[in-house]
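Work Package 3 committed the consortium to producing structural models of liganded targets before the mid-term review. Because experimental data for this complex are still outstanding, the team generated a predictive model from sequence and the ligand definition alone, so that downstream docking and mutagenesis planning could proceed in parallel. The input record is reproduced below exactly as it was submitted to the modelling pipeline, together with the SMILES string for flavin-adenine dinucleotide.
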Amino acid sequence: MTKGTQADVNPDLKKERLKCNFNIQEVTFIIDGGKDKTLQRKKIEDVALNIAASIDEVPEECLNLKERYDNAVRKSCVYSNIVKNELLEITGLEALGSPGLRRTADAFFKDVSPFMLHLGMFVPTIIGQCTPEQQAHWLPKALEMQIIGAYAQTELGHGTFIRGLETTATYDPATEEFVLHSPTLTSTKWWAGGLGNTANHCIVVAQLYTKGQCHGTHPFIVPIRDLDTHEPFPGVKVGDVGIRMGFNTADNGFLRFNQYRIPRENMMMKNAKVMKDGTYVKVARHEKLTYGTMVFVRVTLVMEAAFNLAKAATIAVRYSAVRRQSQPKPGEPEPQILDYPTQQHKLFICIATAHALQLTGLWLWRTFEAVLADMRKGDTDSLPELHALSSCLKAVSTSDSAALIEQCRFACGGHGYMLSSNLPLLYSFVTATRTYEGDYTVLLLQTARFLVKAWEQAESGKVLTPTVAYLACAAAKEKVVWSDSVDGMIRSFQAVAAGKIAACAENIKRLTKTGTSLEDAWQLSTVRLVAASEAHCRAMICQAYWHEVTRLTASCSASVKIVMEQLATLYLVYWALETTGDLLRYSTICESELNKLQLKYEELLALIRPNAVGLVDAFDFRDEILHSTLGAYDGRVYERLMEEALKSPLNETSVQSSFHKYIRPLAKGKL
Ligand SMILES: CC/C=C\C/C=C\C/C=C\C/C=C\C/C=C\C/C=C\CCCCC(=O)SCCNC(=O)CCNC(=O)[C@H](O)C(C)(C)COP(=O)(O)OP(=O)(O)OC[C@H]1O[C@@H](n2cnc3c(N)ncnc32)[C@H](O)[C@@H]1OP(=O)(O)O
Ligand SMILES: Cc1cc2nc3c(=O)[nH]c(=O)nc-3n(C[C@H](O)[C@H](O)[C@H](O)COP(=O)(O)OP(=O)(O)OC[C@H]3O[C@@H](n4cnc5c(N)ncnc54)[C@H](O)[C@@H]3O)c2cc1C
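The resulting structure, written out as tokens with the ligand in place, is given here.
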């Protein structure tokens, strides 16, 4: 954070910091995943942020579309040199996935870098889908930025249904080449970040044909532009998809092929190969390993959701400590809006959710690494569970994060609507994560497939995998006894999930018994399947969050343990109150217990209140990363709003030319 001198800090924020009764740094270590990670992040920030501080002369949002893109490319080049020459020096290759790198990128770009997909998907796909020889060829070029890549899977006509993609890659043994072709308008690749004007290479997912047979979708590395002139190659039509709600500097593009040839070796051959004579050879032991990059990105998106929500919460909580409004008690000063319980209700769940998603995200990352290690040994048994886990966690975390970021904006009143608050840009960025890398509903339905199968296994007494082990107890189908202890609440959330999954399974069984096909019975049950999947995910987040808080605070100071547990309890109680209908149905909770729960929630808000600013300070965002007039460390909200307003091009002159061109003629009846 940029602390400045204490004298510059808003007096209300100063007082808030004196009230804080826990060691902020200990919480920062927990959030970052350990002291070593925090130290590494700070080191990276110290190097990168000196340059970021003066990277923009004019605020990004004041530039026109083309200037914004050019400016984003300029900054991406500066930033990638820092990554290459300095950050990787500090930490080695693992810096690519480190929170430090992710955070510093935000100091350079308020919107999105056109290079993001290069690092976010192009490089990971080379690592995940290429043979060691192919990696040796492509990876150094990509890391040195000699080539810049995009990931083009989605088409104009299909995003979700990958098997329905229309782009073809037909093998020609005579020349040992693949011929890429876009047979229809709807087969045009659409949306790929960095593709429109920036990338010179692209991973293209296409239907592979060899010896007259289709073998389904496979990834290919495709050079699309000349490395010197940057002109698209003949047979390649590429451009920008048009103005979007956000991501306007991300250069999302379209791409069409007209019988465009690439060498056979450009097929990414880790999981399947085409031999010189056109023979197709399957290498992978699991059908869906070509979807590996998507699983990887879904896993990272859980922490990405936490990170962005933490930023919004920091902005809104600091602002709420500075902002004073109304006079609930006559004759008394206007209170800080953070003192209103309704404001606490809006904001403390944001802090708690950021913790819940970050700790669950770290746990998911470790699970992902364990599954990868199994797969390196040829064991793919745990892949379906990882797919189910990452699908629902990606869906719920991005959805919650987007909704709560918008809540933070509401919590900042009119000033939250200013782009300079950074809340609108944060929202437009995060709301896209609910859609990309697998739409919310679609991914919850993927998890639901796994859950229904697990339910059937539970009913037949089979051993269940860890994340669904709770279904075994629930197979008895009795209401769970309600208790407002943490364990009791988690048991009740699991009972809700189990009850909903059971109801789905029964519904499907009932429909198929009366002659409905399994596919139709599934479709007729999808509204409840999505709800069951979400309930399962919520129970899992509650369990993982509480488990991680207990584990990570075991050796912390007592005050840190208390405040971390208060937040985690708040998260559980909040969701119990949000889902009272479900609890009434699947647990023994009654009216008096619901009243008790409401009181407990209000008590928790009051307990967390004195530590609210300390808790957001513990996210440890430097001002350069927050980019917010409302959320800076010093709380000089009004001064910053005014300074930023004066940077608007509309304030460059006291009279605009439009006055002379239109308004005056209109007033004089001469228009
Ligand atoms: C210099 C640098 C400068 C700046 C850099 C700045 C910062 C960079 C730093 C870091 C970046 C930080 C963070 C972000 C990182 C990157 C991301 C950023 C942006 C991303 C942009 C978005 C990119 C995209 O959107 S790419 C396109 C994604 N598309 C999708 O997700 C499509 C969704 N659809 C599907 O996944 C599938 O089609 C489906 C799952 C819906 C169905 O598939 P299919 O029809 O084939 O299968 P089914 O028949 O339904 O099922 C068959 C069985 O297979 C199982 N299954 C399905 N999928 C999987 C899987 N992935 N793994 C395992 N198993 C799977 C399924 O469950 C069925 O099983 P069953 O047993 O039969 O039930
Ligand atoms: C900002 C942004 C960046 C992107 N970047 C990339 C990129 O770099 N590379 C890339 O390849 N793609 C990218 N995408 C595309 C993205 O992955 C897809 O948009 C996403 O997977 C959703 O697919 P879709 O657009 O086809 O939606 P659709 O599948 O058409 O969804 C529309 C609606 O139909 C519903 N629906 C669809 N199928 C089902 C079903 N089976 N059951 C029930 N409901 C269903 C959905 O829930 C949704 O409500 C990006 C998208 C965005 C917004």
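Reviewers should note the following from the model. The mean pLDDT is 95. These observations will guide the Year 2 experiments.
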